[in-house]
Amino acid sequence: MKTKSIMIVGVGGQGTLLASRLLGAALISVGYDVKVSEVHGMSQRGGSVVTYVKYGDKVDSPIVQKGQADLILAFEQLEAARWLPFLKTDGTIIANTQQIDPMPVVTGVATYPDGVLDAIRETGVKLRDIDALSLAVEAGSAKAVNVVLIGVMAAHMDIDRAVWEQAIRETVPAKFLEMNLKAFDLGYQNAQ
Amino acid sequence: MSKKLLIGNEAVARGLYEAGLRVASSYPGTPSTEITECIAKYDDVYSEWAPNEKVALEVAAGAAIAGARSFCGMKHVGLNVAADPLFTASYTGVNAGLVIGVADDPGMHSSQNEQDSRHYAKASKLMMLEPSDSEECLQFAKLALSLSEQFDAPVILRLTTRVAHSRSLVEVSEREELDLKPYTKDPMKYVMMPGMAIKKHVVVEQRILDQVAWAETADINREEYYSTDIGVITSGITYTYAKEALGENASYLKLGCVYPLPVEKIRAFAAKCKKVYVLEELDPFLEEHCRQNGIEVIGKEAFTLQGEYSQSLIAKVILGREDKSVATDLDIPARPPVLCAGCPHRGLFYALKKLNVFVSGDIGCYTLGALAPLGMIDTCICMGASVSALHGRNKADEANAKKSVAVIGDSTFIHSGVTGLIDIAYNQSNSTVIILDNSITGMTGHQDNPTTGKTIKGDPTTAVSLELLAKAVGIDRVRVIDPYNLEECETVLREEIEADEPSVVISRRPCALLKYVKHKPPMHVDPNKCVGCKMCMKIGCPAISMKDKKSVIDFTQCVGCAVCSQLCKFDAIKEGEAK
Q1: How many domains does chain B have?
Q2: What span, in angstroms and rounded, lies between the C-alpha atoms of B161 and B75?
Q3: Are B504 and B435 in contact (CB under 8 A)?
Q4: What is the CB-side half-sphere exposure of residue B293 using CA atoms within 13 A?
Q5: Min Cα–Cα distance to chain A from B511, Å
Q6: What's the predicted TM-score (pTM) here?
Q7: What is the CATH number of the domain that holds B491?
Q8: Pick from A109, A180, A93: nearest CA to A145
Q9: pLDDT tens digits, one per residue of B488-528
Q10: Cβ contact (<8 Å) for B545 and A106?
């Protein structure tokens, strides 16, 4: 199979690393060659963060560049727009509707643009927007936004649901397992 | 045998472990940190965080001479700190294998410069291996230990951010248990005084020749032939970019050993290809070697000395191919990293802002205090420089000594700030040094250090008392403040800056991200009292924003530190109720 590319983008602290770990675990268990590229360090402190996940028969480069992602999972609206150029023109972008003001907006030197999702839709790419924060709260914790979004993404991919649930079991601590499985389910059910 | 999806750093740790590693001593630094964190999970290996990279390398060198396979890891700038033992360990050689792991950061994801560590291999005359993915990280780590013993010299294992922090599949196997190699007293080998070193230098130069001969036939310097219209000489992560960009439209010479480099192997490869490119991030290290040996290549004139390469860059330059993409026409504000909600550094920087002083800064999360709206760092050079550079400034401009401070974290202070403080005390400059003691090495992702009272494995140990240390070096004025208390911060800092002698202020509050820290419920804004004056926005807390001309606090981020409420003149910010 030709290598496929997924990007997980968001704001440092939103739990994008756990999401990429889950995705990596699910892809391996169905037998793909997988590479996942993470960024650690300074940008994790509330900065714009991106993780690349690539899979196929044989993956070379671990990173994704402009016009190369088949799917982007965005944890925040502005980050969805920022990384949109990395999407293939016929790719799909899943965007959490949450808005987090970057510091230049907080300090008043920049404004958070209106109509971000509409602007993304107007470019002609496939957009699925979802209020993952509300679903996470419904599942039991605002911190489960990442797993809700994984649930949404899972519904857009060709991997058995049981594989995802197994990956969650192997990745999250036991005491948060039930809540995370619920978060995954809510994302999955509300994906379309 | 099983396959695991490991980041490069984890795979290096695994390889070292499997090859019988016994001792690891490192100082954390992105993107190298996880190598040693992962080694610490193996109980068969002694591991530690050292106070700095020089100490770490000396510990590892001592252990190798004692007969234990040893490792020392650091980021690129750490190798500057460890350069002193590096150059002479090249002369003494080893007994059991010694591997020095160094992670470069092209693109500066989390660094203050973009230096290319390959120059150190050449300068110290030590072999350097460079893996391309996690499987090679594991294999090369093992190979490096055995090459170190074969050539009786440390071997440097160089990673870059994308190798260190990318996960790929790795086949793991069992550990090989090795006994300590016997140590034999040998002053001609291990005591580097001129008489011995003169003789050892001859050995070092011969060793390089032997290593070149090895490099000519080594498996890790691998040719792959497809179309010979294009030849690519490359190494490390750039090999994966080239393969993705060019596929079977090119042939490859993938160099797993980047120092010393083969000559004839490269010449033979180049002769088979019509047009030869050297693809390497940062400096033209491979390229200059080719040119020096009269091998015609295309290198930096077509690419760049700055930042990272990618499959797209290579496809564009060599094939003239670009992928199509779309973008919105929105003006998208940047999202620079920020101090976290509840970060104890925030209150301290706000107090400094009110005092309007020059701030000599250092390396750590608190370097983010340089950014708006706090904007309270004037300089940042390297680990420890805040203290010594402040001393220099205050000697140069004594009239303004009472308008300046240094800020330095607990771990950075131990790393190399304390030596600067000794200079302040010994040579008496009227300097105020603020130690931002958040009880952890923060930016690199929470490593214990000599002030935290815990070892790398989390076991209790003795803790350096920063108060007693400052007093012991000759600072009489030492005070402790709570950075969540703005009034206390401002009052104490003003007194210490104005005092006629050197002083140390310890701003003490654990990092808000530490798991053991119990947070208060999130604060909230009473919209009836908020007048939208934006006073609370002046501390640059990512949990606070304005909606409909009123301040709002994001409950998912706020940890109830209450620094914002101390700024509100209208009593609009309330503590949350415990659930």
Answers
A1: 4
A2: 10
A3: yes
A4: 17
A5: 12
A6: 0.96
A7: 3.40.50.970
A8: A180
A9: 999 999 999 999 999 999 999 999 999 999 999 999 999 99
A10: yes
B49 and B185 part of one domain: yes
B579 within some domain: no
Scanning every residue of chain A, which has its alpha carbon at the shortest distance from the alpha carbon of B168? A35
- Predicted-complex ipTM score: 0.94
Sole residue written with tokens 């999972």: A73
What DSSP element (H or E) covers B172?
strand B166-172
Residues B17 and B112 in one domain: yes
The number of folded domains in chain A is: 1
DSSP letter for each residue of B502-529:
-EEEEEE---TT-TTPPPPPPPEE-TTT
Q: Burial level of B329, CB count in 10 A (0-12/13-18/19+)? A: exposed
Closest C-alpha to B555, from B544, B566, B540: B544
Residue range(s) defining the domain that contains residue B495: 344-508
Q: Which amino acid is at A164?
A: W
Residues B134 and B7 in one domain: yes
CA–CA separation, B428 vs B407, rounded Å? 18
Q: C-alpha distances in angstroms, A125 versus A9, A114, A128, A155, B193?
A: 17, 19, 10, 18, 69
pLDDT digits (tens, 9 = 90+) for B187-229: 999 999 999 999 999 999 999 999 999 999 999 999 999 999 9
Residue B132 falls within a domain, yes or no? yes
CB-CB neighbors (< 8 A) of B168 in chain A: 33-36, 59, 62
CATH label of the domain that carries residue B261: 3.40.50.920
The nearest CA of chain B is from the CA of A34 a distance in Å of: 6
Tracing tokens 């009489």 back to the chain, one arrives at B476
In CATH, what number is assigned to the domain containing residue A139? 3.40.920.10
